[in-house]
Amino acid sequence: MEPSKDDKEGKSLxxxxxxxALEYLNREGMTxxxxxxxxxxxRKIDLMIIPLMWACYNLQYLDxxxxxxxxxxxxxxxxxxxxxxxxxxxxxxxxxxxxxxFPTGYLMQRLPTAKYLGANVILWGSVVTLNSAAKxxxxxxxxxxxxxxxxxxxxPALILVxxxxxxxxxxxxxxxxxxxxxxxxxxxxxxxxxxxxxYHSEIFTSWQIMFLLFGLITVAIxxxxxxxxxxxxxxxxxxxxxxxxxxERLRENQTGIENKHFKRYQVWDCFTDPQTWLIVLITxxxxxxxGAVSSYQATIIKGFGYTSKQTALLQIPSGVLSCISVxxxxxxxxxLNARGPIIVTLLLIGGILGGSLLAFSDITNKGALxxxxxxxNVIGATLPLIYSYSAANYAGxxxxxxxxxxxLISFCLGNIIGPLTFRDADKPGYLPAKIVIVVSTAVSLLxxxxxxxxxxxxxxxxxxxxxxxxxxxxxxxxxxxxRENKEFRYRW
Length: 492
Known about the structure:
This protein is an all-alpha fold. The protein has helices at about 5-10, 20-30, 35-70, 75-80, 85-100, 100-110, 115-130, 135-150, 155-165, 170-180, 180-195, 205-230, 240-250, 265-270, 275-300, 310-315, 315-335, 340-360, 365-375, 380-395, 395-420, 430-465. It is globular, with a radius of gyration of 23 Å.
C-alpha cells in the first residue's frame, strides 16, 4: 500500500490543513497564563473529565467481566452451556472488539469524540441488560458479539481525550486515574457477586438481576457522558480565556489536539513506524495473562477448593492490588517524568513471579496459589503506560487515531489467546495456561527493553541531524506526524 500522489500532495499542503486548535487561536487571539492560572486550570479540567472517564472505563471492565462472576453463580447450569462454550464467549467479545477498532477509529475522527463515546456506552449498557433474558448459548453468543462492537470505542476514545487535554508529562497519571477502573470494577464485581449469591427467587436468578442492574447503570452513565464530557477544549464549558490556556499549554506536546480530515499517508506512516510493531508485541504478550485472569480468575480460585461465595470474596484483593499497582505506576511515572524502563520492568517481573507461583506451587499450598493469582494482576498495570506511549509519541491526528486502533487490536489479540489456553482437558490445574502466563510476560519484558533502546537511539539520531534547525511558528499545530516533525523527541 504505497501512499498515493494525492496523499503526497496533501502532505505538502498540510500547513493549510492545520489542527482545529490553531484555527481557534487565530480566531480568538492570545492571552497570558501564569503558573497559578495553569494549576487552577488543570484542577478544573481534572474535575470536568476524569470522573466520567473513570466511570466509563470502570463499567467497560465490569460489564465485560460480569460473565466471569455469573459463571460461579450458575450461568453454565442455567443456560446449559459447556466449559468450552463459556471460553468461546470470552473469545467472541474480543473478536468483534478487534474487528470494530478501525471502523470506530475512523468514526471517532469524523464525529464529535465525546458524543460518539457516550452513544456507544448507552448501546453496550442496553446489551448488558438483555443478558438477563438470555436462556441459551445462541442468545449469550449474540449478545457477547454485540458487546464487543460497542465497547471497542471506549479505550481509544479515552486515550484520545487524554491527549487533547494534558501535557505529555501529565498523561501517565491521568491515564492511570481512569484505567484504575479495572481494579475498582473487580472489587465492585466481587462484592456484587457475593451479595447476589444470597438472593434466591424462583422468578429471576441472581446473575440475571446482576446483569440488569449494571446494564441500567451503564445506560445512565452513557447519557451523562453525552451531556457533560466535552468533545475538545474548544467546545468545552471553560471560559474563553481558559480555552486559550488549555490549548497553549499543549504546544510542548507537538502532537496537536484535533483534525477532522482523514489523511491516508499518516496511516502509512503509522504502519511503517518501528515503534508501532514493538508496542504491538508488548501489548499482545502482556494481555495474554490479562485475558486469562479476567475471564478465569473466579474459576481458578474456585479450583483451589473454595465455595462460590468464598471465591467471590477472595477476588477482592485482586482488585485492590490492581488499583494500587495502576495508580502507583501512573503517579510514579509522572513524578519521574518517565514511562517505562524501571516501572514496567518491575510490574512484569511481579507478573512472572505470580505466574510461576500459580504454575509450580504445590496444589495443597493455597497461600502460594492465591498469592500467585493476585500477583498476576499487576501485569495489567503496564497497559496504561503503554497507552501513554501512544498518546505521547504519535503525532498527526490520523496517525494517532490509527495507532489507537492498532493498540486496541493488539489488546484484543492477547485477550483472545488468553482464555483459549484454558481447556477443559487441563482441568482442574490448567497447568499449560499458567505456563503461558509466565512465558508471554517474559517476552513482553524483553520487547519493552528493545523499545526503550529504540527511543534512546532515535532521539540521539535526531539530536545529531537536526539540532540546528530553526523553529517554525505554530508548527506544533500543523498536524505533522512525529516522523515529519524534526523537532519532535520521543518520551520514554
